[in-house]
Design brief:
The protein has about 350 residues and is α/β, with parallel strands linked by helices. The protein has one domain: Glycosidases (TIM Barrel), CATH 3.20.20.80. Helix content is about 60%, strand content about 10%. The protein is built from 17 helices and eight strands. Helix 5 links the parallel strand 3 and strand 4. It is globular and about 90 Å long.
Length: about 350
């Protein structure tokens, strides 16, 4: 009898959980007056309140207009996480080479928050490559290739960066902040393989925070199979992109259609009750905000077994590459040997062709 009651209770609990809508949060990366004007819209703020949504605000500046907008969000009771960013010339996102500037940014942020009595649910650290690397892709790709190749040998900078960032995170926590990080999902492969090649190649740092939010953007990383494959228990997921965000040389990350976003939302909802969407401005512009609000989350997630299988094959290739790059000297020897063999065979072929042509002349 007790066993039957327990089973019934568990079934009821699972049923109620499946009917509950997830906690939705939006990233917002608008700059300057665009940010201030965006949150001057009371109708938008009211809709966010009705959705019980929270925000991750990219802090490009500590201007008076941004201060007023944050105070307005605080007054409305919308939970806001401070997503710390740097000027573009300093790399924009936090990375292996700007830890000291990130520390100074936090000091300025804390002073600004105290002076203006701003309320934060936590601090977000975005661990991505230096924006200047992204610009070099368009202007000097070979210069970038040589730069990242040299990084594969640079263990010292990575170790020093880890120390700086872990000290910064400890300081944030001692100041009473909950700290979360936004991760490229392949970091989890690197942890499992115990390599550091991805971090050195991209100039990023794998650090420990209270909460990790993997950026599972199918608009950039491929099919929806990445969502269940990189989700971990008790972990949120970040979906996107719906548009917006910083541009590099005028290029903007591809955005999802509503049907693609809806699919990702249902998949994520089957795994976690904590879903983050990049971005708020893109969702508003495309009319997705009301669609997200009215989406029935109690429906079954779509079958993506074939996509998971395809993604597993891609992950195997990524892991192989990570292991190879973790031994750059041996990799260089292999590449030089292959290149030397190709050149040798090319010249042998040329000599053979010349010999044949000379015989025909005779």
């Amino acid at each position: 009898m007790k066993r039957n009651l327990l089973l019934a209770f568990l079934a009821l609990t699972m049923s109620l959980n499946s009917l509950a809508d997830p906690n939705i949060s939006f990233f917002c990366e608008l700059q300057g007056n665009d940010f201030n004007e965006f949150f001057a819209d009371s109708a938008l703020i009211n809709e966010l309140v009705e959705m019980h949504a929270s925000l991750r605000i990219g802090l490009h500046d500590f201007s008076a207009g941004r201060t007023l907008a944050i105070q307005k969000l605080n007054t409305a009771g919308i939970p806001v996480v401070a997503w710390l960013l740097l000027p573009e010339e300093d790399g924009y996102w936090f990375n292996m080479h700007n830890g000291e500037k990130a520390t100074k940014r936090y000091e300025d942020f804390r002073e600004w928050s105290l002076q203006n009595n701003l309320k934060w649910e936590g601090i977000g650290i975005d661990l991505e490559p230096d924006m200047n690397d992204g610009k070099l892709i368009f202007s000097h790709p070979w210069k970038l290739a040589w730069r990242v190749y040299k990084r594969l040998y640079d263990n010292k900078s990575l170790k020093e960066a880890k120390v700086i960032y872990q000290e910064l995170i400890t300081r944030m926590k001692n100041d009473g902040f909950k700290v979360e990080s936004y991760l490229i999902p392949f970091i989890y492969d690197e942890r499992e393989l115990k390599t550091t090649s991805l971090q050195k190649l991209l100039g990023i740092v794998d650090i420990e925070t209270d909460v990790e939010i993997p950026m599972l953007y199918t608009s950039a990383l491929g099919n929806s199979g990445i969502i269940p494959l990189y989700h971990h228990d008790n972990m949120p997921v970040a979906l996107g992109s719906t548009g917006g965000g910083v541009k590099i040389n005028g290029a903007e990350i591809a955005s999802l259609t509503w049907s693609a976003l809806e699919k990702d939302l249902l998949i994520a909802n089957s795994l976690t009750n904590d879903i983050h969407i990049f971005s708020l401005e893109g969702s508003v512009e495309k009319g997705y905000l009301s669609q997200i609000r009215n989406l029935s989350f109690n429906q079954d997630a779509p079958d993506i077994s074939s996509e998971i299988k395809e993604e597993k094959n891609q992950i195997k290739k990524v892991r192989f590459l990570l292991v190879m790059l973790d031994h750059p000297f041996l990799l260089t020897i292999v590449i030089m040997a292959i290149a030397g063999s190709v050149i040798f065979l090319f010249f042998k072929l040329v000599k053979l062709v010349i010999r044949i042509l000379n015989k025909k002349k005779i």
